[in-house]
Write a structure and sequence with these properties.
It is globular, with a radius of gyration of 22 Å. About 30% of the residues lie in helices and about 20% in strands. It contains 16 helices and 17 strands. The longest helix is centred in the C-terminal third of the chain and has 17 residues. It is α+β, with helices and mostly antiparallel strands.
Length: about 500
């Protein structure tokens, strides 16, 4: 018997356990919304900006059967649900109010006997794989933030500094176990449910709940030692810096990755450019590729070899570990992002000048402009049609986020996490929510300006960086949408999994 949603809100105050509990295992948790410290019992979200609401309570399943039953019961009663894995999403979920399905219990990591594959649970985070992979002499292109959920990152693409050499995370994905909107438990791979497996690799959140994923594992590069280099470049060198970044459009070595964060130092009242370079090989091979950055006369620099299990913590003068802003939950972070095929240096120079003015005009604003230049040799080894991921040709990923952080020259910047082909992001960290309107008014036209010269002829956005207002063409590419829509009709015709960057049921 279906209940009206309004009636159900009141009924859930006391009946959540009676509706779901009898069908779940003894280790599953049913958490009514009236529970003391309700939100603290769930996986915390990285940002509170446009966060979802869970006035109907939460379910923390312990088994795959629990997930199946939760989906079936919620669907039968028209209860909207929202699935949480690693909690690092940044999209706009403010319109969602319903039931949380928290996968925190799905945190297993199992290496095959011959160490050629690893199978992980749906909520495993990157930091849980770093040591096991290193000890096994294996590697994966895990990205740059240790607190990000592996499965969620993979389904949206899985960009990272190792992608030039090893491809995207979704290229290493061999199979998944997934609960569909009908409550069915399926295996999807290149041989099982092939259409679903294609769609999952790029638009995966639209088709079900992945309870586990299996990845193939290549041998670790350079016996597990990577070159890490950090530079602080003076803001006065910004024009030359953008020219250096543009020069990487042609012939970037596949083992090289560059991440740059442009921030404002509130202690010295001046902007600065922090650069991190990783080379997945010996220093004598990698260091010559850094000459252009050395010529920018950095005020600080460090080049060293570090073990693979230390590479994330070593970045940016060791200011990038789990305890920096990239992994602190419940910050107010407002992100604008895009993917680029090319760098139009006049647009970069113009935006830099306007961003500096914005920093000066708004002392409470500590936004960061992040540029992630990863080689795309690895992604391009896989045909565009092999997966639903539409950004294999990207040269740069970037974003600007707005938040409130206290950064000093001496301590070096703590920067965000995300990377792949040339990408750019505008990250906004701040606690004064009255800045939301001026930040949006500043960054919306800036994003439009970059989109015009991106090389795509339209706005293109890495799905895992999407803020939610860009549209399906920006997230998935127009060439993929007809097939994605058909698969959506097959596996989720009632759009149960359409809270996050939804694939439309029909296209065009």
């Amino acid at each position: 018997m279906k209940l009206d949603l309004v009636q159900f809100v009141f009924a859930l105050q006391s009946n959540l356990a009676s509706l779901f509990g009898p069908h779940l295992s003894s280790n599953a948790q049913v958490i009514p919304p009236t529970t003391s410290n309700f939100s603290a019992q769930l996986q915390q979200r990285w940002t509170d900006y446009n966060a979802p609401s869970f006035s109907l309570g939460a379910i923390k399943p312990a088994t795959e059967h629990d997930v199946q039953e939760t989906v079936r019961i919620a669907s039968a009663n028209d209860i909207p649900f929202f699935v949480t894995g690693g909690g690092h999403g940044v999209s706009d979920y403010h319109a969602f109010d319903g039931l949380a399905i928290d996968l925190s219990a799905f945190k297993s990591v199992s290496m095959s006997e011959d160490r050629s594959h690893v199978t992980i649970g749906g909520s495993v985070k990157i930091h849980q794989l770093i040591k096991p992979l290193f000890e096994a002499g294996k590697e994966l292109p895990l990205g740059s933030c240790a607190c990000v959920g592996v499965v969620g990152a993979t389904l949206g693409g899985g960009i990272g500094s190792l992608q030039g050499h090893r491809g995207l995370m979704l290229d290493s994905l061999e199979s998944v176990r997934i609960v569909t909107a009908a409550g069915d438990l399926l295996q999807a791979s290149r041989s099982d449910n092939q259409d679903l497996f294609w769609a999952l690799r790029g638009a995966g959140s639209n088709y079900g709940i992945v309870t586990s994923a299996t990845f193939s594992l290549p041998e670790i590069s350079n016996h597990g030692w990577y070159m890490n280099a950090d530079f602080i470049v003076p803001a006065s060198a910004n024009v030359s810096f953008f020219q250096v970044m543009k020069s990487l459009e042609h012939g970037m070595p596949p083992r090289l990755a560059i991440t740059a964060g442009i921030i404002y130092n509130r202690v010295t009242n001046e902007p600065m450019i922090a650069v991190n370079a990783i080379y997945y090989g010996p220093q004598e091979e990698g260091e010559p590729y850094l000459q252009a950055f050395k010529h920018l006369q950095p005020t600080m620099s460090n080049i060293s070899m570090v073990p693979a299990d230390d590479i994330m913590d070593a970045a940016f003068f060791r200011s990038f570990g789990q305890d920096n802003g990239a992994c602190t939950p419940n910050q107010h972070i407002n992100i604008y992002s895009m993917a680029l095929k090319q760098i139009h240096t006049p647009t970069f120079e113009s935006f830099f000048a306007r961003l500096v003015d914005f920093w000066k005009e708004h002392p409470g604003f500590q936004g960061r402009w992040l540029l992630q230049r990863y080689a795309n040799n690895g992604p391009l080894m896989v045909p565009d049609t092999e997966t639903a991921y539409g950004l294999r040709h990207a040269q740069l990923y970037m974003y600007v986020d707005m938040s409130l952080l206290s950064l000093s020259y001496a301590s070096s910047p703590g920067l965000e996490c995300h990377i792949d082909e040339p990408s750019r992001n505008f990250e906004g960290f701040y606690t004064d929510t009255s800045l939301d309107d001026p930040v949006n008014a500043f960054l919306t036209p800036a994003r439009d300006a970059f989109a015009k010269v991106s090389g795509y002829g339209r706005l293109a956005v890495y799905p895992n960086y999407a803020r939610g207002d860009e549209g399906a063409e920006a997230w998935f590419g127009p060439e993929n949408l007809p097939r994605l829509a058909a698969i959506k009709q097959k596996y989720d015709p009632e759009e149960r999994f359409s809270v996050h960057i939804p694939v439309p049921l029909h296209w065009p």
